[in-house]
């Protein structure tokens, strides 16, 4: 259960107070790093390692009031679902995928006739079960992926709701909901909350205009990783997810290199380029200049690097880059820039800053993963600047 005084999403109020200060990177009270939502300027939201901003991302799922007709032997059941976007800021959600699973059967994808869900708006979709037996309990798992966008960036999450359908004698249907109150898959505090929909007989007639029943949603983090909603879908760390609070370690930048730590900037990204660092009166977190073997700056070649050449951030559990430099940049063999600015960076990738001079300056990326969770990313400058210089 959430600690007393904590806000939705598990972020302490003290962190919100300290995040108001633009250059604050740690909470002065509890010492936690301030991980801002990518849309922080609009929502003021902070996120945990799971990257989900509870201000921006607030889907709600309902079983509509006209749910469930009589269950006939061997018949199918239509469940009218209503998706609602409860975001307090005017941020739309995009329901990109919907899957339904019955019992231990395979998850099947349900086509959605719509994707966009404006804040305060709702959309309906009917899902159909397979043939139900007249008696007994039927487990239904409803899982959906929701995306939130901010400029070129996107975070995607998966949520799930578990229902148990029970057909009683006489045809009335009881829907139980499986709620794991501890939040993460331990199953320790599972409770079954009955949602009784009196759909047949006198009760239905006596309850005109009944209410839609809200279904409990849980983050489906294991599913996010296995289905590629979050994290890497290929490469050596396939199935692994970068934590939003992953520590970035910089190597080869010399004695004055950037400090190790998670991304705690206002816009939750790191600017890399020819301009000076913020600490030195510039605009970047990491200054990129071409140097010779002795560590002396090659002024002429460095001019080919844009003032802000690259922006690094973590989105949907992947390290990503937006290449803003005029010269572009190579990620692996692929040149990014202009119309193809967005790059996904994985373990072992090498980012070459100047495609025309690939050996001049590169960043090699390595990641440390444990049980599918990446908590440290090491970015090594090639060639390395001598430590003494
Ligand atoms: Zn705090
Ligand atoms: Zn937000």
Concise structural overview:
The chain is mainly beta and 389 residues long. 7% of the residues lie in helices and 39% in strands. Residues 37, 39, 43, 45, 53, 55-56 line the site of one zinc ion (ZN).
- The CATH H-level superfamily of the largest domain is Immunoglobulins
What about the largest sheet?
A: 8 strands, antiparallel
As an assembly, this protein is: single chain
Question: How many structural domains?
Answer: 2
Ranges where pLDDT stays below 50 over 5 or more residues in a row are 1-6, 182-192, 198-209
Bound molecule kinds, no repeats? zinc ion
* Separation of the first and last Cα atoms: 51 Å
Helix and strand string, N-terminal first? HHEEEEEEEEEEHEEHEEEHEEEEEEEE
Give the overall form: elongated
Please report which band the strand proportion falls in: under 5%, 5-15%, 15-25%, 25-35%, 35-45% or over 45%: 35-45%
Q: Can you tell me the CATH topology of the largest domain?
A: Immunoglobulin-like
- Please, how many helices? 5
Gyration radius over CA:
25 Å
Number of strands: 23
Helical residues, percent: under 10%
Instruction: Please tell me the CATH architecture of the largest domain by its name.
Output: Sandwich
Classify the secondary structure makeup into a structural class: mainly beta
Q: How would you state the average pLDDT, rounded?
A: 87
CATH class of the largest domain: Mainly Beta
């Amino acid at each position: 259960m959430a600690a007393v005084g904590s806000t939705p999403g598990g972020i302490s109020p003290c962190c919100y107070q300290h995040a108001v200060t633009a250059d604050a990177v740690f909470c002065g009270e509890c010492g936690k790093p301030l991980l801002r939502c990518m849309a922080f300027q609009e929502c003021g939201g902070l996120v945990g390692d799971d990257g989900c901003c509870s201000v921006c991302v607030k889907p709600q799922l309902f079983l509509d009031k006209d749910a469930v007709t009589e269950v006939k032997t061997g018949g199918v059941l239509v469940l009218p679902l209503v998706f609602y976007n409860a975001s307090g800021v005017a941020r739309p959600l995009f329901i990109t995928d919907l899957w339904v699973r019955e019992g231990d059967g395979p998850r099947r994808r349900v086509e959605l006739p719509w994707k966009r869900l404006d804040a305060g708006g709702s959309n309906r979709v009917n899902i159909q079960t397979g043939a139900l037996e007249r008696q007994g309990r039927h487990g239904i798992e409803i899982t959906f992926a929701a995306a939130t966008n901010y400029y070129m960036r996107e975070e995607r999450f998966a949520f799930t709701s578990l229902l148990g359908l029970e057909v009683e004698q006489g045809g009335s249907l009881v829907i139980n909901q499986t709620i794991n109150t501890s939040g993460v898959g331990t199953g320790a505090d599972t409770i079954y909350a009955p949602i009784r929909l009196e759909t047949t007989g006198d009760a239905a007639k006596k309850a005109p205009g009944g209410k839609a029943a809200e279904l409990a949603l849980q983050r489906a983090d294991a599913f996010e990783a296995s289905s590629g909603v979050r994290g890497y879908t290929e490469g050596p760390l396939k199935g692994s997810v970068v934590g939003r609070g992953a520590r970035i370690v910089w190597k080869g930048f010399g004695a004055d290199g950037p400090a190790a730590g998670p991304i705690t900037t206002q816009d939750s990204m790191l600017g890399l380029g020819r301009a000076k660092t913020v600490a030195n009166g510039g605009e970047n977190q990491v200054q990129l200049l071409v140097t010779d073997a002795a560590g002396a700056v090659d002024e002429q070649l460095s001019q080919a690097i844009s003032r802000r050449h690259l922006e690094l951030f973590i989105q949907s559990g992947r390290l990503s880059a937006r290449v803003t430099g005029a010269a572009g940049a190579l990620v692996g063999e692929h040149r990014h820039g202009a119309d193809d600015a967005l790059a996904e960076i994985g373990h072992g990738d090498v980012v070459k800053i100047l495609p025309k001079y690939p050996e001049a300056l590169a960043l090699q990326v390595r990641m440390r993963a444990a049980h599918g969770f990446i908590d440290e990313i090491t970015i090594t400058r090639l060639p390395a600047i001598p430590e003494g210089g």
